[in-house]
């Protein structure tokens, strides 16, 4: 693939998200990640992963490009133990060199969620203090970030570009064009370990209080915030600046 841009140190000097999106519209996930590295440099690029049921695929593609790309993992304090164990399994299996587990600020938790019931009374506020604000802090050193959203997941994700602007940063969506069948093929071809909860009917795994099993025929994300209009935690619907 043709070079997208030389490595530069100032975000203002980077190519625009629109320019990059046009250039990478039909690129493979590996080509998108390689272009992100070339555009901003490894030290200014982070991959944000939940280590959920589909995360191994993006992490595998990233590791094949450069296993030392920093990976940001939001340890909200409400994650399943199986997710924490899966994180460690994938770090070892894929040879990931720089996984950073980020936790919410204790002062914020004490002030806004002292009884640990905010997930029930105000799930948007719970996501804000446990995911959105910690991610904003974690991304401060970076000029761009990678994530694993796919268009086939629907709702707000149905029309995502391959590259977009996220406040002061570029946001790369390497799997935007990938199908469910292609994800499965990556799992099989690379013999990737599955999330321990996947076999129990958890097709999309987030925090324990807001994650449930998915029934046959339901959308994979139907078990997230079941019974509520909420479909996103906020890190993909707010500008992380």
Mind explaining what this structure looks like?
This protein is an alpha/beta fold and about 240 residues long. Helices cover about 35% and strands about 10% of the residues. The protein has eight helices and six strands. The protein has helices at about 15-25, 30-40, 55-65, 80-95, 105-110, 120, 125-140, 180-190; strands at about 45-50, 70-75, 100, 145, 165, 170. The protein has a six-stranded mixed beta sheet with strand order 3-2-1-4-6-5, sandwiched between helices. Strand 2, helix 4 and strand 3 (about 100) form a beta-alpha-beta unit. Helix 2 (about 30-40) packs across helix 3. The longest helix is centred in the middle third of the chain and has 16 residues, at about 125-140. It is globular, with a radius of gyration of 17 Å. The relative contact order is 0.18. The model is unreliable at about 1-10 (pLDDT under 50).
Amount of beta strand: 5-15%
Q: What is the CA-CA span between the terminal residues?
A: 30 Å
**Would you identify the regions where 5 or more consecutive residues have pLDDT less than 50?**
1-9
- Proportion of helical residues: 25-40%
Please state the CA-atom Rg, rounded to the nearest Å. 17 Å
Q: Which assembly state applies to the chains in this document?
A: single chain
Q: Profile the largest sheet.
A: 6 strands, mixed
Helix count equals: 8
The ordered string of helix (H) and strand (E) elements is HHEHEHEHHHEEEH
Mean pLDDT: 89
Give the total of beta strands. 6
* Shape category: globular
Helix-strand makeup class: alpha/beta
Taking strands numbered 1, 2, ... along the chain, how are they ordered across the largest sheet? 3-2-1-4-6-5
């Amino acid at each position: 693939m043709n070079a997208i841009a030389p490595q530069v140190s100032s975000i203002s000097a980077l190519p625009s998200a629109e320019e990059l999106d046009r250039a990478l519209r039909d690129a493979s996930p590996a080509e998108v990640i390689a272009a992100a590295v070339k555009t901003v440099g490894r030290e200014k690029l982070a991959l944000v992963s939940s280590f959920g049921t589909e995360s191994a695929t993006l992490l595998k593609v990233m590791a094949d490009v450069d296993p030392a790309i920093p990976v940001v993992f939001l340890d909200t304090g409400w994650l399943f133990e199986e997710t924490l164990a899966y994180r460690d399994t994938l770090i070892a299996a894929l040879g990931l060199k720089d996984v950073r587990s980020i936790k919410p600020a204790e002062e914020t938790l004490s002030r806004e969620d002292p009884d640990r019931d905010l997930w029930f009374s105000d799930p948007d506020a719970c996501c804000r203090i446990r995911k959105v604000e910690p991610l904003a802090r974690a991304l401060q050193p970076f000029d761009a970030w990678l994530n694993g959203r796919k268009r086939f997941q629907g709702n707000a994700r149905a029309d995502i570009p391959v590259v977009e602007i996220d406040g002061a940063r570029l946001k790369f969506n390497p799997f935007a064009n990938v199908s469910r069948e292609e994800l499965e093929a990556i799992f099989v071809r690379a013999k990737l370990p599955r999330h321990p909860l996947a076999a129990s009917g958890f097709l999309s795994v987030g925090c324990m209080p807001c994650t449930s099993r998915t029934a046959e025929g339901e959308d994979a994300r139907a078990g997230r915030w079941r019974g509520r209009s909420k479909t996103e935690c906020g890190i993909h619907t707010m500008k992380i600046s």
